[in-house]
Specification:
Radius of gyration: 51 Å
Largest sheet: 6 strands, mixed
Oligomer: single chain
Shape: rod-shaped
Number of helices: 11
Helix content: 40-55%
C-alpha cells in the first residue's frame, strides 16, 4: 500500500512540476474545465426544458382524452345502479365500452396514446377496499382519489408495479356522473415513450458535449501552441544569450503580433550585443589603463622613494617643520605604494591571470602572525585583539591554500575591524568541519546600516568617508580579499548592525576548488557570541602555584580563548 501511495505522490509531484512550467497545459486544462461547466449547465437546462415540454404535451393530450371519454362513459353509466349487487360487472362493461370507443378514434383524438381506465365508486358507504370498482384501482394514489371524490380534475405522475418492472404513468382523475351519485374515473397513461425520448436526448447531449469538449481541447491546444511556441523560442534564445551566444536570433514569420515580438526581441538582442561589446572593450581598456599606469608609476615612485628615504634619514638635521614634512612624505609614499600594489593586484584579478601557490598552511599560525603585525596599530587606538582558538586545537585547521593570499585576507579584515572598533575589542574565531574551515573577525564598533553588508566589498566604497583611518587603507582591501577567497573556491561574507558592530567571515575549502555544503561558523543572527565582558573574563588565566600571588593576574601574551564562549540562542 505504501508503494502505491508513493507512486501516486510521485506522479502528483511530476504533474505539479509540469503544471507550473507549461502555460499551454494550464490554458488547455482551464479552458476544458470552464467548457465542461458550461456544457453541464447547458445540458441540464436543455434537458429540463425538453422534459417539461414533453410532460406538458402529454398532460394536455391526456386531459383532452379524458374530456373526450367522459360523454361516452356517462351514457353508459345512466343505466347503472350503484346499489345493485352486480355493480362491479356493470362498471367493467362500461369500461369495456369506453376502451372499444377509444380504439376507434382518429389519430388526432388519440395523441395521448394507450391508457388503462379505472372506474370506482369512491363515495359508497362501505370500507375503502370494498367499494365497487373496475380496473386496477390499487394503482391509483390515495391523494389523487381524494381530489376526484371532491369533484376536481387532478393529475399526478406515479410509478406502478408491473410484471415487467416498474412503470411510470401519468394518472388523470375526474368525477363522472351516474344514475344516483357521481363516480370517479382514472385514466393511466404510460410515459414509456417520453422516457425513451428523454434517454435519446440525454445520450445526444452527452455525446455532443464530449465531442464538443474534445474539439475545444484540440482547438485550444492548437491556438495556444501558436502563441506559446514563439514564447518558448524566445525563452530558449534568451538562455543562449545569457550563456554568451550573442548571435542567436528569433525567426520572423509574417506581420502579426508574434512577428513584431520577434522583431523587437531581435532588436533588443542586437542592442545588448552592441552594449556588451562596448562594455567589454571599455573593461579591457580600463584594465589595460590601470595596469599600464600602475607599471609606469613604479619607476618614478622608486626614484621618489629613494629620495624620500635619504631625506628621512637626515630629518634630524632639518628644522622641526621640514623634519615633520619628511615624515609625512614617507607615510604618504607608503600609502601610495600600497595603493599601487592593490591596483596591480586588481588588474591581475580582472584579467584572470591570478594564480594560487597552494601549500600546506597552519591557519592559526598565519592568523596570529597577521594579528601581531597589526597589534601596534591596535594598541595605539586602544583596541584589544583576541584570538580565540577552539578546544580541538590547531591541527584540524590546517588547509592547503596560498599562504600569501590568506594572510592578506586576514590583514585586511583585522585592519578594517581596528578602524571601526571604536576602542572596543576585536575577536578572531575559528571553526572547521570535514569540508572547510572558517575564520570570523568581529568588532563591537559602529556596525553597518541596512544594505551596507553587500556594499562593503565594492571598490573604494567607505561607510563613513569622514572617518579617520588608522591603517591607511586604500579602499580596495575588502574587494581584493573577496577575490582571493573566490580564487580558493571559498567565500567572504559580512554582517553588521548599527551600534552592535560588524562581523566578517572568510570560509575556505580544505583544498582549493573543493565544494562544501555547510559553513563551520555562523554569522551573528543564527548564533550569538558572548558579550565582550564575558570574553574578557575568560581571556584571563589564573596563575598556577608559584607563578603569582593570590588574586594577581599574570600576563601570558595574546589571549587564546576556548570554544565554550559560543552560546546557542
Amino acid at each position: 500500500m505504501s508503494r502505491v501511495q508513493e507512486e501516486v505522490r510521485d506522479r502528483w509531484r511530476r504533474f505539479e512540476a509540469l503544471w507550473r512550467r507549461s502555460m499551454q497545459l494550464r490554458v488547455v486544462v482551464s479552458t476544458l474545465a470552464l467548457s465542461l461547466a458550461v456544457v453541464i449547465v447547458l445540458g441540464m437546462v436543455l434537458q429540463w426544458q425538453i422534459t417539461a415540454q414533453l410532460l406538458d404535451s402529454k398532460e394536455d393530450a391526456a386531459i383532452t382524452q379524458v374530456e373526450t371519454s367522459l360523454p361516452i362513459l356517462e351514457r353508459e353509466l345512466t343505466a347503472v345502479d350503484p346499489n345493485s349487487d352486480t355493480i362491479d360487472e356493470q362498471l367493467a362493461a362500461a369500461l369495456n365500452r369506453l376502451t372499444t370507443s377509444s380504439s376507434g378514434q382518429s389519430k388526432a383524438e388519440t395523441v395521448a396514446g394507450a391508457f388503462t381506465p379505472v372506474l370506482v365508486d369512491g363515495l359508497a358507504p362501505v370500507e375503502r377496499r370494498a367499494q365497487p370498482s373496475a380496473g386496477p384501482v390499487e394503482d391509483v394514489p390515495e391523494d389523487l382519489r381524494l381530489f376526484a371524490e371532491r369533484g376536481q380534475l387532478a393529475t399526478k405522475i406515479w410509478t406502478v408495479s408491473r410484471e415487467s418492472g416498474p412503470v411510470t404513468m401519468l394518472i388523470v382523475g375526474t368525477p363522472v356522473g351516474s344514475a344516483t351519485r357521481s363516480l370517479q374515473l382514472y385514466m393511466m397513461f404510460p410515459l414509456s415513450a417520453e422516457q425513451g425520448t428523454l434517454q435519446v436526448v440525454q445520450q445526444t447531449l452527452l455525446i455532443s458535449g464530449a465531442v464538443l469538449l474534445v474539439l475545444l481541447g484540440l482547438i485550444t491546444n492548437l491556438v495556444t501552441r501558436q502563441i506559446v511556441r514563439p514564447v518558448r523560442q524566445a525563452a530558449q534564445i534568451a538562455e543562449q544569450l545569457a550563456e554568451g551566444d550573442l548571435d542567436k536570433r528569433m525567426r520572423v514569420i509574417g506581420e502579426d503580433d508574434v512577428a513584431r515580438l520577434a522583431e523587437s526581441f531581435n532588436e533588443m538582442a542586437d542592442s545588448l550585443k552592441q552594449q556588451i561589446t562596448q562594455l567589454e572593450e571599455f573593461g579591457q581598456l580600463q584594465r589595460r589603463f590601470t595596469s599600464d599606469v600602475s607599471h609606469e608609476l613604479r619607476t618614478p615612485l622608486t626614484t621618489v622613494r629613494m629620495a624620500a628615504d635619504v631625506l628621512h634619514a637626515s630629518r634630524e638635521q632639518f628644522p622641526p617643520g621640514l623634519s615633520r614634512s619628511t615624515e609625512l612624505l614617507v607615510d604618504e609614499l607608503d600609502r601610495f605604494e600600497l595603493l599601487l600594489a592593490d591596483l596591480l593586484e586588481i588588474s591581475r584579478l580582472d584579467a584572470g591571470v591570478a594564480d594560487l601557490s597552494a601549500e600546506q598552511v597552519d591557519l592559526v599560525e598565519l592568523v596570529e602572525r597577521s594579528v601581531e603585525a597589526l597589534r601596534p596599530i591596535a594598541d595605539e587606538g586602544g583596541v584589544e585583539l583576541r584570538v580565540i582558538v577552539p578546544a580541538c586545537g590547531a591541527a584540524e585547521l590546517d588547509i592547503v591554500a596560498d599562504a600569501r593570499r590568506v594572510e592578506r585576507i586576514m590583514r585586511n579584515l583585522v585592519a578594517n575591524a581596528i578602524d571601526h572598533a571604536e576602542g572596543g575589542p576585536v575577536e578572531i574565531r575559528f571553526g572547521s568541519n570535514e569540508q572547510a574551515v572558517a575564520v570570523t573577525v568581529r568588532d563591537y564598533g559602529v556596525g553597518l546600516r541596512s544594505g551596507e553588508a553587500e556594499l562593503v566589498f565594492t571598490r573604494f566604497w567607505r561607510a563613513d568617508p569622514s572617518r579617520n583611518r588608522r591603517t591607511g587603507g586604500t579602499g580596495l582591501g575588502l574587494s581584493i580579499s573577496q577575490e582571493d577567497a573566490r580564487l580558493h573556491g571559498g567565500a567572504l561574507d559580512a554582517w553588521g548592525e548599527p551600534g552592535e558592530g560588524s562581523c566578517f567571515r572568510v570560509t575556505l575549502p580544505r583544498h582549493p576548488g573543493a565544494e562544501f555544503d555547510s559553513n563551520p561558523l555562523p554569522l551573528p543572527g543564527t548564533r550569538r557570541i558572548a558579550a565582550p565582558e564575558a570574553l574578557l573574563a575568560a581571556s584571563v588565566e589564573r596563575p598556577q602555584d608559584g607563578e603569582a600571588g593570590e588574586g594577581e593576574i599574570q600576563d601570558r601574551g595574546p589571549a587564546r580563548l576556548s570554544e565554550n564562549t559560543w552560546e546557542d540562542e
